[in-house]
Amino acid sequence: MFPIICVIRPQSAGFAYEWAVLSTTRGGRIARLVRNKAILLTDMEALATAVINHVGKSPEGVPVSAKELLHLGTREAVDQTLSRLFRRGSLIRVGRGLYVRPIEGRFGVRPPESATVVQAIVEQRGESVVPHGAAAANELGLTTQVPVREVYLTSGPTRKLKLGNQTVELRHAPAWQLALPGRKAGALIRALAWLGPEQASYAVEAARGILPESELNAVVELRRMLPTWMAQQVSKLAAHA
Predict the structure, then answer these.
(1) pTM tops 0.85, yes or no
(2) Cβ–Cβ < 8 Å for 153, 169
(3) Residue with the larger pLDDT of the pair 148 and 131
(4) Pairing between strand 159-163 and 166-172?
(5) 61: phi > 0 → left, psi -120 to 50 → alpha, else beta; which?
(6) How do residues 110-147 score in pLDDT, each as one tens digit?
(7) Each residue's pLDDT tens digit, 86-107
């Protein structure tokens, strides 16, 4: 009579251990291996359900990464599950290792709003983020040119986010370009940076009729942070302020 051999090896998904008993009959060995495969698939589906439930509790547009899900399984198992959910369409991969849940609406499934995703990412990572100078110039009425791409300036690294068919760029910028977020004064600084020295004089003159005195003063006070060419143009606002 042949002995029974027990083979134990780690599962590729990382949940527990895969085991197989090689019995004395070929039929018994195949049945046991099929059973192991079914157990493995059940564990993977359970992890997928747990991931979806976790992501579903997050506000719209808030991304999740594998490191936030390690209480559900091993890193390898979580990575594989996130990739599988992305291929199914259950999650959207917005960047390397970052996923968000799609939004279900009356007209089907869509990605979250890009501004919401960007704000959530920078808050998670403690970055500063502001609209690009082209958008700032358009907002202030200094140009009629509408930005073709959605670009943000950030204190973090440069990278791109993919939201369906839309690509959003986060571009690293120096501290002076990130100054006064959410204010017209900050928008003017970013607009000047985008317009460049050739159009700066025109933009500063136009700003006199656009910005209130408090915002003009705020720009003047930041002269020490600005490049020399911009500081010289901004200084023209001092007399007006």
Answers:
(1) no
(2) no
(3) 131
(4) antiparallel
(5) left
(6) 888 998 999 898 888 899 999 999 999 999 999 988 88
(7) 998 899 999 888 999 998 877 7
CA distances from residue 137 to 6, 48, 84, 155, 204 in whole angstroms, order as listed: 71, 45, 42, 20, 12
Residue type, 5: I
To 10 degrees, the CA torsion angle through 212, 216, 217, 221? Answer: 160
Closest C-alpha among 110, 108, 125 to residue 63: 125
d(CA 145, CA 166): 20
Q: What's domain 5-105's architecture?
A: Orthogonal Bundle (1.10)
Residue 8 phi/psi, 5-degree rounding, is -125, 130
- The CB-side HSE value for 215 (13 A sphere, CA atoms) comes to 18
Tokens of 41: 């698939």
Q: Where do the structural domains in the chain lie, given as residue ranges?
A: 5-105, 119-240
Q: Which two three-digit tokens encode residue 42?
A: 């059940």
Q: What is the DSSP letter of 64?
A: B
Strands (E), the chain: 5-10, 17-22, 92-95, 98-100, 103-105, 108-110, 129-131, 150-154, 159-163, 166-172
Give the Cα separation of 49 and 96 in Å (integer).
Answer: 22
Give the pair of three-digit tokens for residue 207. Answer: 């700003």
Question: What is the radius of gyration, based on Cα positions, of the chain?
Answer: 27
